[in-house]
Model the fold of this input.
Amino acid sequence: MRQRPIPRRTPGNLPSDLSGFVGRGGELSELGRLLDASRLVTVTGAGGVGKTRLVLAAARAVADAAAGPGETGGTPDPAQERYCDGVWLAELASVRDPALLELTLAEALGLTDHTTRPPRTVLAEHLAERRLLLVLDGFEQLVDETADLVRDLLRRSPGLRVLASGRRPLTLDGELSWPLAPLGPEEALALLIERTSAADPAFALTESNRAELAELCARLDGLPLALELAAGRLRTLSPGQVLSRLEDRFALLTGGSRGALPRHRALRTAIGWSHELCTSGERLLWARLSVFAGQFDLDAAEYVCAGPDLPVDSVLDLIGELLGQSLLVREETAAGVRYRMLESVRIYGAGWLESLGDARRLRRRHRDWYMGLATWCELDWFSPRQEEVAALVEAELANLRLALECCLDEPEEIHLGQYLAGTLWFYWAGCGRLTEGRHWLDRTLEGDLGLAGAEYESSRLKALWVLGYVAALQGDSVASMSALYECRDGAARSENPLAAAYAVHRMGCLALVSDDMTRAGELLGSALERYREAGELNSNVLMCQVELAMALAFQGELAGALTLCREVRDICEERGERWTKAYALYVLAYAALDAGGTAEARRLLAECVAINHTFRDLVGLVLAVELLALVTVAEGHPAEAAVLQGAAEPLWDGVGMRLFGSGYFNAPRLMCQERAGELLGAERYASCARHGRTLPLDVLVERALRGPEPAPVPAGPLPRPRGAADRADRLMEHPEPKSRKPAGSPKGEPAG
Done:
């Protein structure tokens, strides 16, 4: 029997096509030809002409070609080589801050970087040796910044190709700009029929309605968005009624300005016509929903949009009506059911909101909702809903950015931005968003001109200790200590013992990664006492206890470290907390390995790896992988250990200084490298490590969780390590600290 091909998996993040792609066969073929001819292709056209749908269809075709015929053979497609590293989509329409452009691209590519390196450097280094297609959708509001970034990346990344869509070209050398025309008469009619039938299965094309439907397609100039809106109306109106309303009510809009392109006039006609056919409540909700960026949920819509003129219990029904008219899109996400307004529709609604004079009030109301959301998410982070919180904040990131911008628009409300940026500490530190967190924390603190007043000092202090925490994790000890000392001194002046506890805690964390274990133990112990006096218990407090356990373990006090981490593990399991638990498991695995319990160490580290990968916590993940490599060589699998060590290296590039430059954290790596190298030989060890460096993150995690095959190499006990591993053994007992105090600490600074 002939074996069926096994589909290959192409890396990427393209969304599924939920409603089907109608027509455009010729355009798809032409776009494929252009991508063969140029490394930069830009599809241009009016809003609503179908640019996004076309480039996504073209990108899916590229991804399918790159997947190839499978493992059983077949003629390879050139795309398999050209796009072997995948097809990736970056949606830019909701990005307004130029500083977030590069971060958005990094997020789209799945990059997590904890360092202080510029995001452009991170992007360039990631793309330098890769062959992939990057799809950029909706860049026109940042066209100059996008053009500059694309130019730089294409120059530095020879295997990169870019497919962009926007209302104008990027005007770069080598760019092939292709203006997208509206649909032809037959394709426009096919799209109208398909969308109307999807909404009303009883609808069908007949000889009696064909002429009117064809005229409607012509009147709407073949614009897909306009046709989608018309399809929403054909559920309740006949084609003749739609035509008459379009003619009678919008002759002025159809004429438009003298210089307007016909398709621009047709789009405005279609959207304006839909607006006029809405009830007053639907129009009002449409305008108010325009304050959201990207997706939103029902609760947010009800809070932000309801009022005396729009009762809260009417919002759900009105959303249903807007969905039925194709003015809203419903999407299933990891955070639940959410809604999204197409950009052209949103812009139209925003114009009406401005004309009503209500835009500023609605933006502030939007900000207030997302400040409340962040507050509840911070509380829920210390609960069984931790993973749901991470997914929710991820889904709401565009709206949280908008809320932060709103806070920064008013100097006297800068304290609200400080509060919001500080409250999101769990997302910045726990979900791999250090660079973005640093961006907002710096902006809110730089904008503090003392206008907020002493009554808001607690918000400023929170932003300071979170900045100190984030900077420490990025390896920026100078900025970290500066923020933490400012926080501690401010806490003393304002008599805020809780802010002081957080400042002392993060000073202890910085001492820990600086190899000053004595000072780390003093500061972390002092912070724990302060937390207890204040009645504080959350993930931060438990993390402080884990960090104290690390300081003890590195000094050989494993019994004390075990007691602290077992207590943390028990509390985490009782409360449903997983993020801090992962770090406690790391210390418990360290102690288990020291006692010879490799099986127990592997079990603990596997859970640790899974949790850290779930939350995109690169620091915790790479530490666990490094220790797992040592466990693996101790089990008799030196080749697999070398692969894991190699795989950890690029992860450290995203964290910053490898193993923080710490002799204590580096000791397991040195020991593993020595033992695996002796068993494999230098050449094979290097080959295995090189293979590890090529593993994508998801593949590495899957491999780490699966474990090595149950055939150890060699038989019998491992030889006694020599050389670097002996030095590593001594380091694990009494390492030489690289610094007796954290960078930036004053001489003679007392603990706490």
Q: What stands out?
A: The first helix runs from residue 25 to 37. Residues 1-7, 248-264, 713-752 have pLDDT under 50 and may be disordered. The first strand starts at residue 40 and ends at 44. The radius of gyration is 29 Å.
